[in-house]
Design goal:
The protein is of the alpha+beta class. Helix content is about 70%, strand content about 5%. The chain is built from 12 helices and 8 strands. Helix 3 runs antiparallel to helix 11, helix 4 packs across helix 8 and helix 5 packs across helix 8.
């Protein structure tokens, strides 16, 4: 009786391992166990190292006063006497600004170049091909340094700035544009704009329903834009034009007033935009080529012009192929904005992950926060693009 009894547990384990379903569960349990053991070991190691250095772990340094450093681009109130948390918030806003503007510019350039890449005109197609290959095969950091050097070294100094209608000025100190000043009554303009926008969206949905039911095409986009623009303009005039302009003016060696778009911001945003647009262009080209040629021929046989064929037939079907890799390019652009520190643009990495880290000595906490912020931004972009992908996907019958 002793022999079989001692072999029974071993037999049970071998039986579990031979069965595919139970083996899969066992592997998952072991993987999770190894993961948590690794995390526990890392936490214990960090704790021991902190204790050896007589350091504590915490985020109280964010409220430490003062931060004692200036930031070259500030979109909210900030000075060197504010806390490190305020400085990090300014850097985060600067990161958001580069990401949003860069994504918009890269999308416009990418879709334009990707469409031209398939043009029947040989010269246009070849120029688009040269643009794509020349841009995407050079590291993005070199693009950033190149454009920053061009802006700094080729544009004139402020006293000889390029004058654009006495309202905007371009120099090696950046682009100066008028600053809008909101006055009393502007809230009514915002309400009118929101109401007009809702009305335009409802009209567009009704026009699409009419087209589906009857086949009659209604130019809802242009009419919707006219509704929004007209209602907003009437509300603006009725409220007494509650927006003024603060024009930049040369005082001393530089301009004062208005909005200053720094050379670092312009160079970084433009470099990231053109670099990412080259990859987006190839995604667009691949998406268009994925649409069956018979779809284009059928649309042309109905008498649709090439522009209508592209916008109404080809692109709506190509989007299901374009959007997944497009999401990756948006994420890459956002993460590549961390290279801003190379030209002195004060983003999240330069503030919280740079000067604040060096001044407080909180390298672990600072880098954890920077990583967490980029993770949250990336997840938000992915969630939005996944939602949009579900909206435009083809519904199978």
């Amino acid at each position: 009786m002793t022999g079989p009894a001692t072999l029974q547990p071993a037999f049970a384990w071998s039986r579990i391992w031979r069965e595919e379903k139970s083996r899969g569960v066992a592997i998952q349990i072991m993987t999770v166990l190894i993961f948590f053991l690794t995390v526990a070991w890392l936490i214990g190691n960090v704790t021991a190292n902190f204790a050896a250095l007589d350091k504590t772990f915490g985020f109280k340094f964010l409220w430490q006063l003062p931060a004692n450093y200036d930031i070259n681009q500030v979109l909210i109130d900030y000075n060197s006497q504010n806390s490190h948390l305020r400085a990090a918030l300014v850097g985060l806003i600067n990161t958001f600004l580069v990401a949003i503007v860069g994504i918009v510019l890269a999308t416009i350039l990418g879709f334009t170049v990707g469409t031209l890449r398939l043009s029947g005109n040989w010269l246009v197609a070849r120029l688009a091909y040269i643009y794509i290959e020349a841009i995407r095969n050079v590291p993005v950091l070199l693009h950033i340094l190149l454009w920053h050097g061009i802006i700094i070294n080729t544009l004139p100094h402020p006293r000889r700035a390029i004058n654009m209608g006495d309202a905007s000025f371009l120099s090696n100190r950046g682009l100066y544009i008028p600053r809008p000043l909101v006055e009393d009554g502007f809230g009514w303009v915002v309400i009118a704009f929101a109401a007009a926008l809702i009305g335009a969206i409802l009209y567009h949905k009704r026009a699409r329903r009419i087209q589906i039911d009857t086949g009659r095409h209604v130019h809802s986009i242009w009419i919707g834009l006219a509704i929004v623009a007209g209602v907003t303009l009437l509300a603006f005039l009725a409220a007494g034009s509650p927006i003024g302009l603060e024009l930049p003016a040369l005082r001393g060696f530089n301009f004062r007033g208005g909005i200053n778009l720094l050379p670092e911001f312009v160079a970084l945003t433009w470099a990231l935009s053109i670099y990412t647009s080259a990859f987006i262009a190839e995604n667009v080209r691949g998406g268009i080529l994925a649409v069956n040629k018979g779809q284009t021929e059928a649309a042309q046989s109905l008498g649709l012009r090439p522009g209508k064929v592209l916008s109404l037939v080809v692109l709506p079907q190509a989007l299901r192929v374009i959007i997944p890799p497009l999401t990756s390019q948006y994420l890459n652009l956002t993460k590549n904005s961390s290279l801003a520190i190379a030209i002195g643009y004060m983003d999240l990495v330069a503030t919280l992950g740079g000067i604040t880290l060096n001044q407080t000595g909180r390298e672990m906490e600072s880098m954890m926060l920077v990583m967490l912020v980029y993770l949250i931004i990336s997840l938000l972009i992915s969630s939005f693009m996944n939602w949009y992908n579900n909206r435009v996907r083809l519904v199978e019958r």
